[in-house]
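During the practical work, I worked with a single protein chain and the tokens that describe its fold, as given directly below.
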Amino acid sequence: MKLSVFSLAIAALLFAACGPSKKLQNANAQIATLNTQVAGLNSQVTVQQKTIAADDLQIKQLKEENIQYGKEAESCRKAKEAIAQRMDNLNKALAEHGTSMEEIKHKASLALDYFHDAGFAVKYEHGLIHITMPDKSMFTSGSIKISDNGRQAISVVADVLNDYPNIKATIIGNTDSVKINGSGPGKDNWSLSTERANSIIRVMVKTYHVDPSKLTAAGKSKFSPVADNATAEGRALNRRSEIILDPQFYKLWELSENK
């Protein structure tokens, strides 16, 4: 009997010791789970904070860009107004000179039509009119004498120069790479190219009474080819005279600034 009572007491002590230990283990497990959840939430909060910070930075940048775009738009508006004003002044300056942009355009169109019909190449580039005349239409081979067709072409250019006092012209002679042997004005490619330009100017001045102060002669010899000198076709293209008409619109543009 005493042994039984003693055994029961021992069992009760063991039960009492095991009971709280299991509860503690369960509590610790719950705490660990909660800690894991808290860590996850903290991580999410950190990510959200970074996202918010990035969004704030982007918003700040967009605001700054918007301010800059506003300034640029205002600058563009003012620039457009300034250009419109200068164009108005330019038209007034042209009117005071007894002409207009439409008149100049019409006159130039008529002249360009003739040049194209005569087989000459014409282009408008950077405010300048470039007229290319093949030597076969202007000169005999190796000569500086201008043909009848060449004189007719020169007359059209002379009319433009005489009708518009502000227009100036540069005449440039070009040759192929074939060496010229002989003496006189066309003794080499340099002199031939230059003398052909001079011949065109002489006709302009003496026959068509163009103001010589508006004319400039130049020669480039064989050093400005537009085609391959290794072929007959290429050499024919390289033998040419170029007339560059400068309407000097920049002077009218400068004049418009003072209006």
About this structure: Residues 1-96 form one domain. The mean pLDDT is 79. The longest strand covers residues 128-134.
